[in-house]
Each structure stands twice: as C-alpha cells, then as structure tokens.
C-alpha cells in the first residue's frame, strides 16, 4: 500500500514505524526562517533553477522529514511524481517546516521566504508553480494571497497554485477520538512509558495548526464541540486577503470521490470498545446526525463520562481522503490509534474495530461546499461549485495524500499545459 506524502500522526504514533530509506542528497539546501527547502534540479537544467515547482509539507508533529516526504512523493509504488516533473524540465523544491504544528500564518512566512529565495536563484523568467499537500496547501494559499496584498512583499511571479487533499473547508477529526485522547492524558499522562505518548498526542490535537484546520474541536473531554477561536481568527485573516490568490490559475485534487458515494463506514456504529485494568466499558462511536453520545469513557473504579454531540453530519463515512490507512508500516488509522492506546493502557480491545474514517471530505479538498451540511457532503460535485479553476477527485476514497498516477499525472499535465 502506498505511503502518504504527509503522515498525520507522524512520530506521535506509539508503535514503531518502518524507517524510510534516505532521500537522495539535494542539489541545494536552503536554510529558511522557520524551515528548510530541499532543491532537486531537473536533469534537463544542468543544475540550475530554471522552472521551479515548490511543494509544501503539511500538518504533523515535529519538524519535516525529507526521507518521508521523498518516499511519499517518489517511492510510493504507484507514481514517481518528482521524476515526472523532472522529465518536463521542472525543478522541484520540497518545502519543510521546523514546527508543523505552528500557526498556518507563521509557516506561511516560511513559504514566502522560500518563494523569494526561488525568485532570486531562478535563471530566466519562468513563472513559479507553488502549492502543497494537506495543510501545506493552506499555508501556500495564504502566503500567495498575502504576497498579492502586502505592498512590502514582492510579486510572487507564480502562474499556478496547486493543492493536494487540502482542507480548504476544514478537516474532520472524530470528536470521540479527541475526547478519549484528552481523557486518557488527564488520567495517565504521568504514567511512565505511555504517559509521554498520551501527552504528545493530546498536544498535537490541541496545537495551533490543528485548531486552525479542524472544523470542530474540543480541548477537554467534556468541552462543547465548536470551531476553535484560532480557526475563526485564521479564516478572518484569510478573508481579509481576499480568500485566495487571484493572479494565477488554481487547481487541486482530492483523495476522495466526486460522486457522493461514501466510504462504507456506518453512522452511529461502535468503532472501538475496550474493558480491562484501567478502562471499564469504554467505547467510541462514529458520528451520526442529531443528538448522540459519541463516547463513553470510564476509568476503572471511577465515574463514567459521556461525550455528547448534536447537529453534526454523518461525516466519518463521507466521501474524502481517509485518515492514515492501516498498513504494515505501523500506521493505525484514526479509531485504530485509539484502540492501540487502549491496549497499551492494559485493556482488552474488541477485535471488531473500525480503524479509519474520513479526514478531508472531498468537498473540502476542492473547496466546493460546507462540510457541516449533510446534503453537500454526499452530493455529486460539479465544477461550477468549486472555488478552484480546475480539480480532479480520485476514483475511490483512499488514504489522505496518497500519491497516485491518477492524481499525480493530472497535476503534471496541468502544469505542462498552463505554465
């Protein structure tokens, strides 16, 4: 199974993951304010930056890992995205960040720094291609829009913006998982071994970037689901810049389908359940419409905590890019990760686990609807309702930021045809 370009859980996942082979040595490496750019020149350009394509990393824990990014882009077993770009004479700049959980606007400063460096290093006058994967698409969207509106910044000289399964209209992190993570951290966050893992995972979900990205967020198990203030402020700042960069062509792809067909996960189903030494009759459910108890959390010997939601759509089963799909590399999905944590806390987990769920609904990835609207989530998508100039949805609901020939080749063709 293909590895994702952006590994959402990253090193926070408690099981050892397969190590990635080292990426080839970059032809150049730029130290940026808040990050690093790794430059790979096309063999056609004689080690000169002639036709730059900047590809931004997305949301995860810690700093960007070049080996992982290269593996997802180039050694994914399906489509060699970098090689295909090189074959068209495009030079690839992989943009990473020191802190992938930092504010989108802060990392946008790093993206602006990268664009400026690319313009200064470029030989000739070819326009840039700039975009990113997952939240990297939001970072570069904001950066380009700001460069157009801020008179103190140079012209971005970019002709094409691209996004790859980017949460333009928000991401979905199941509220039952958020609640369980915070509940477990409150109770066992100081326990040797598992405690640091729980604190890191809870911290990841409560990071600035996660709050800006998630459509609904809770900071504690008993909190009311809502848009975090950080998300409201980011959307306001983006709106003040016009919402999108305007002086270029905007394209995007989704790892979900455009037919309105869901991924088969039933609403209101018990996704994971456990009982044992530390947790008693604890379970998490997939999201359903109307008033619902999405989680029952009980420390053995303690009082149960019920996590309630209301007015949310049946979004776990919606068409879109899935949370990390379980794989031999140690990936766990979404509810699968909760089940793993339950087991590490000394409990017996029901083997009938719904491991994954929708992460980036298709209509979010192609900016074509409000993911809080139950009808919009499951309706076929048409070009006239997207904010993008062109888009492509996958032929199936697949792992978030999975690089496929279907999506990758379409992007390469768009770059060649329009830039």
Describe the structure.
- This protein has 419 residues and is of the alpha/beta class.
- The chain is built from 12 helices and 15 strands.
- It has helices spanning 66-74, 81-87, 104-121, 135-149, 175-188, 194-205, 208-213, 229-240, 335-344, 362-365, 374-377, 405-418, and strands at 28-32, 35-40, 52-56, 91-97, 128-133, 158-164, 249-254, 270-276, 282-285, 292-297, 305-309, 320-322, 347-349, 358-361, 390-393.
- The strands form 3 sheets. An 8-stranded mixed beta sheet has the order 1-2-4-3-5-6-7-15, with helices on both faces. Strands 11-10-9-8-13 form a 5-stranded antiparallel beta sheet, covered by helices on one side. The chain has a two-stranded antiparallel sheet with strand order 12-14.
- The radius of gyration is 21 Å and the shape is globular.
- It starts with 27 loop residues before the first strand and ends with a helix.
- The mean pLDDT is 95.
Fraction of helical residues: 25-40%
Main sheet overview: 8 strands, mixed
Beta-strand portion reads 15-25%
Strand order within the widest beta sheet: 1-2-4-3-5-6-7-15
Number of helices: 12
- Count the beta strands: 15
The general outline is globular
Low-pLDDT regions: none
Q: Which assembly state applies to the chains in this document?
A: single chain
Distance between the termini: 32 Å
Radius of gyration: 21 Å
The helix-strand sequence is: EEEHHEHEHEHHHHEEEEEEHEEHHEH
Chain-averaged pLDDT? 95
């Amino acid at each position: 199974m293909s590895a994702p370009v952006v590994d959402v859980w990253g090193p926070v996942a408690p099981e050892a993951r397969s190590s990635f082979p080292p990426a080839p040595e970059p032809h150049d490496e730029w130290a940026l304010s808040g990050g690093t750019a790794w430059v790979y020149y096309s063999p056609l350009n004689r080690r000169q930056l002639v036709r730059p394509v900047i590809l931004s990393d997305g949301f995860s824990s810690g700093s960007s890992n070049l080996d992982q990014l290269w593996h997802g882009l180039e050694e994914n077993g399906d489509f060699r995205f970098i090689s295909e770009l090189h074959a068209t004479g495009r030079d690839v700049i992989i943009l990473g960040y020191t802190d992938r959980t930092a504010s989108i606007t802060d990392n946008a400063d790093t993206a602006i720094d990268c664009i400026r460096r690319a313009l200064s290093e470029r030989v000739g006058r070819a326009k840039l291609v700039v975009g990113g994967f997952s939240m990297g698409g939001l970072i570069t969207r904001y950066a380009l829009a700001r460069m157009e509106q801020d008179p103190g910044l140079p012209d971005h000289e970019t002709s094409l913006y691209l996004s790859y399964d980017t949460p333009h209209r928000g991401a979905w992190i199941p509220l039952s998982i958020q609640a369980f993570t915070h509940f477990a951290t409150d109770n066992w966050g100081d326990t040797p071994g598992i405690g640091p893992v729980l604190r890191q995972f809870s911290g990841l979900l409560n990071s600035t970037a996660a709050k800006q990205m998630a459509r609904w967020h809770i900071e504690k198990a008993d909190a009311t689901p809502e848009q975090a203030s950080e998300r409201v402020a980011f959307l306001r700042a983006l709106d003040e810049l016009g919402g999108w960069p305007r002086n270029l062509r905007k394209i995007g792809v989704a790892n979900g389908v455009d037919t309105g067909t869901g991924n088969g996960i039933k609403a209101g189903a018990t996704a994971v359940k456990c009982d044992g030494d530390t947790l008693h009759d604890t379970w998490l459910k997939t999201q359903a419409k109307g008033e619902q108890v999405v989680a029952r959390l009980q420390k053995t010997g303690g009082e149960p905590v019920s996590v309630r939601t209301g007015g949310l759509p049946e979004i776990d089963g919606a068409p879109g890019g899935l949370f990390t799909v379980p794989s031999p590399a140690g990936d766990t999905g979404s509810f699968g990760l909760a089940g793993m944590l339950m087991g590490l806390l000394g409990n017996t987990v029901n083997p009938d686990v719904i491991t994954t769920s929708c992460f980036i609904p298709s209509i979010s990835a192609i900016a074509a609807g409000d993911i809080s609207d139950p009808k919009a989530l499951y309706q076929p998508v048409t070009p006239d309702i997207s904010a993008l100039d062109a888009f492509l949805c996958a032929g199936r609901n697949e792992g978030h930021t999975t690089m496929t020939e279907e999506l990758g080749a379409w992007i390469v063709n768009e770059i060649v045809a329009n830039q």
